[in-house]
Every structure is written in structure tokens, then in C-alpha cells.
Amino acid sequence: MSTIRLTMAQALLRFLDSQYISVDGTERKFVEGVFGIFGHGNVTGIGEALERSAGSLTYKQGKNEQGMVHSAIAFAKQRNRQQIYACTSSIGPGALNMVTAAATATVNRIPVLLLPGDNFASRQPDPVLQQLESVQDYTISATDAFKTVSKYWDRIVRPEQLMTAAVQAIRVLTDPAETGAVTLALPQDVQAEAYDYPLAFFEKKVHYIDRRPAAEGAVKRAAELLKGKRKPLIIAGGGVLYASASQELAAFAEAFGIPVAETQAGKSALPWNHPLQVGAIGVTGSLAANRLAQGADVIIGVGTRYSDFTTASKSAFAHPDVQFVNINVSGFDSSKLNGIGITADAREGLIALQEALTQAAYRTSYENGEITELKQEWDAEVDRLYAAQHEDGLAQTRALGVINEGIDPSSVIVCAAGSLPGDLHRLWRSVEPKTYHMEYGFSCMGYEIAGAFGAALAEPERDVYALVGDGSYLMMHSEMVTSLQEGRKITVLMFDNHGFQCIHNLQRSQGSDGFGNEFRYRSQATGGLTGEYMSIDFAAHARSLGAKAYKVSTAEELKLALQQAKQESVTTLIEIKVVPGTNTDGYESWWNVGVPEVSVSSKVVKAHENMKARIEAVTII
């Protein structure tokens, strides 16, 4: 057998460079490149390999380890999980900075390969700088923290172990039912150790992602259930987009006249103006979708994992005989809510179920114009909110209306946390698939700008906008620098509402007077954070990094700034002053949160009683 002598790090890169993926007959490289921040633990191992023997893999310099992984996640999400970046870090804090992002990937079922440096496998220099010493188990290191947030985890303590670990890592990364964060912990000495690797290990490998077909028996059971139901509702999740099944979803809905609601991950699967598209579902849902959900006798979930925001903490479905049919490539998700599971690719499942229901001459029993009337009422409500005026300044919903109408329909918007996801889910009018990029599985603050950069890497032909609150911006804006470094423009729409206003609203709705969530100066009179709002010049900050920047406080100024930003050639920030509390809320939805049973505040006790009553009214599924 022919061999080649390489260090473990060199072999890893060579292996990654030879991995390909084939979907529906289209073949492409699976690993685009490597994000990295170097330190001891990876600079002389994988760092040397990237410098001198990276092959066709491109290197991107991250500015924050969490941020660079978020960029890699967004890249993979925008590429429908068919291409990835790997991410490498030093040991200790560099590695641990990636843990939050690893969870973000795993929760959202997005593939990302993490290559953190690790302690010396030989233990001879122990304890090295940044090493975590566990007195009860000396085999534990900082990288063990990745175990709970990874779909596959391994530590390479001998160079030949790479051959087994790398194959298993790619298996998980390319499996649409199992994918998420994959972590290969790389001890810094082992990265530099050499081994005679078989050349066969580096031969081009094509991973064929065959669409999982729907089992005949599962389709038959689902069709039998649906034949007895008259008011179905489809909930379209992210799996519809990952399976490129928007056309099949539309065909299925149109064949039987079934309304379609959408999760955060599934939004844009159907255009907003499709006659059967009734908008967002659940806690951040539209009035049309939530009312249809309350009366639905069967829910057809396609590619959704049924988060508590989707189900309104299981209160969204009020029909006494409601049942569930779940089409999902993951058996874990297709079995949820005690539903009849069709464990299949979303496209294949929709096609098979449509054929079975057509043969059964299935018909729904929605009254003439019932769906249309609800949709028209909601469209009018969106129009009202988009035009809303506020005496104190620019309302957040008005700003979103200006943006939605002012940017190209093919542009990609990226968001993750705060009050913006609720408003965007309810109000944003998506026309084309994959133009609404929301990370709401983990709703990780700080994803927005890094995610926008990743989306721009994935789709350089589109304009990409990061919609971010001032709270998330302050948490993480570092990859804005990387976008400038790489010449990959993004436009950051930064909403300044003086704090963590989303949680401030939730807090006050449950009896609080408001505490610790606004960006105010400490008051000498009260001793608390109750003074004047802090004045932060975000536009000046962006300019100091090298970006272009504008400040706006009116709808007219925002319209002009959007036009000007469109003409800029580099990353641009628009600082948008909005009135706190001018976001949307309610629309016959509910969210179960813990409220203290005992408090010195009568308002809190009352809120607890109200919450308890709502919990008792929910049928646990």
C-alpha cells in the first residue's frame, strides 16, 4: 500500500480537501475552507498546515471564535447544508469561545466542523498555559465542554486515529437527519506528529445524499388519518427550504386548499402573497395563522421541530380532536406531539402524501372565502403597522416597513435575537425562497453580523442585510471587520432602542416595574440603573473600524440612507433610532415562562396566577 508521511494536521486538511457531496446529481466540494484564530495549541500545528499545505481550502481570519463559527453556520445554512467551513482555535478560552456557537449549530441542525486545540497528549509540559486541570479526572480538558453540544465528538491522541475520526465526522456532517456541530479535539503535540498515511485515505470521496423516500406504510397511515379531517393546517419549517421543496409545498397546499403557516426557519418557503400563505405561527405569529391553528383538527408539520414558539407552548392547537402528521427527515422530529410520522425528505414526503390524498379524493371543509378573509385582514394589519406613526419618533414597525419596501426582494436579511425576530416573523414580506435567514433555534445574541458575513460568503451575488438591535451589536460586531478584510460587503441595520427591550417588555408583562434591561446611567438618587439613557455613537464606532455609516431617526432619512448604502462598495452601517416598545405583541398567542409564586409585589403574584391558569388550560401532548 502506498503511503505518504504527513503530520496529523496536514493529513486532516488534505482529507477535508478531498471530500465532495452529490445532491440530485449536482456535485460540489463539501468543505469550502477554514476559519481560524491562532494561538498556542493550533498555530504551529494546523496553522503550519494551512500556511503551507492547505490545498484548495481557503483560510478566513476570524476576530472572535464564537463569531467565526456563527459565520460558518450561516454559510452552511444559506447553502442548504451542502457546504461547510471548518473552524480552528487555540486551547482554553479560544476553544471555549466556540461552545455557544456549537450549540447554535446543533440546535438548528446545521453542519459545522470544529477543530479546537487541546492539551498535550503526552502530558509532559503539563500544566501548559490555559490548561484546565481537573483533579478528579486528569483526562478532562476544556474541549470536553463540547460533548453536550456536539452531534459527534472525538479527541485525536495518536495521529493514526485521525483516519477513523475524520470519516465519522464527515458521516455526521453530511447526514441531514443527524447533522449539527462536530468536534475533533486536537492535542497540540499530536497535530505536529507525523504518520505514514495511506494515499487511499486522501482519494476523492463523493458523499451521495440520496433523498430519503417516504415509506408506503407511513404515507398510508397518514392519509387514513387525514381522510377523516376537514380543517388541516400546514406548518412549514426549515426542512422545506433545506430540501428545496417550495414548489412541492405550494402544489400540495393548492391541490387540497390547505392554508400554510410558517416557522421562523421555514419563512420564505412560500411568497407572502400566495393565496394560501397565512403567515407566521405561534408566539410570534400572525392573527390569521393563529386563528386557523386554534380551529384546525389536524396539523401537517413539514420539516419543523415544533419549538415552544411554534406551538405557543402547546396552546396554539385548541381543537379537542387535533392530531398531527409530521413529515421530517429526522425520526426524532417526525415522532413529536404523538404524531403520525413520515420520516422522509420533505420534498419526497409531500409528493407521496399528495398522491395518496389525490387517490382518496380528499377535500377540506373550509368555508368559501374563510382563508382569504383572514389573510386579507392580516395583510391590512401589516399595512397599518408598516405605516404606524409615533409622537416620540420612529416606530420599529414603521422602520421595518421602509426597509421591506426599500430593498431588493432578492436581498437576504439576517437576524437572531431581541424584539426584531418577532416583528420580522409577523410582518416581513418575503417574495423569494432563502431571503429570510433567521437563527431562532438558539436565538443567539451576536449571531446577526457574523451570520450576515457568512450568508454573503454563501451568496455573493445577493445584497445581505444584518438586522440587529443595539444589545446584540454590543455583544458581538467583530466579524464586521472580517467582512471589510475580505471585501465582502454587508449592510448592518442597527436598531437603537436603548437596551434589551424585548426582555424588558417580557419582564414588565409579568409584574416587574422594569429592572436591569435598559442602557441607562446609574442614578445617584436611586442607586440603580434608572438615570438617563446612555448616548452611544454607533455610527462613529462603525466608521472607526473602516465601515461607512449613516444615522437616521425618521422614515424619510431611512429611505435615503438605504439608497446611499446600496451605492457603497464596503460594509455599511445605518444607525436607526427607534422608540422603545414600538414592537408587535400578542395576536392571540401565549408563551409559558416561569413567574414567581411568592413575591412582595402583588403584580407579580397576579401574573403568576394568570400564568398558572393558562398552563392548566393547556392539553399536554
Give keywords.
3D-(3,5/4)-trihydroxycyclohexane-1,2-dione acylhydrolase (Decyclizing); 621 residues; TPP_enz; globular; THDP-binding; Rossmann fold; thiamine pyrophosphate; 6-stranded parallel beta sheet; alpha/beta
CATH class of the largest domain: Alpha Beta
Question: Which spans of ≥5 residues are poorly predicted at pLDDT below 50?
Answer: none
Number of strands: 23
Strand order of the largest sheet: 5-4-6-7-9-8
Helix-strand makeup class: alpha/beta
Which fold name fills CATH's third level, the topology of the largest domain?
Rossmann fold
> Which architecture of the largest domain does the CATH hierarchy give at level 2?
3-Layer(aba) Sandwich
Large-scale geometry: globular
Proportion of residues in extended strands: 15-25%
Number of domains: 3
Helix segment count?
24
- The CATH homologous superfamily of the largest domain corresponds to Thiamin diphosphate (ThDP)-binding fold, Pyr/PP domains
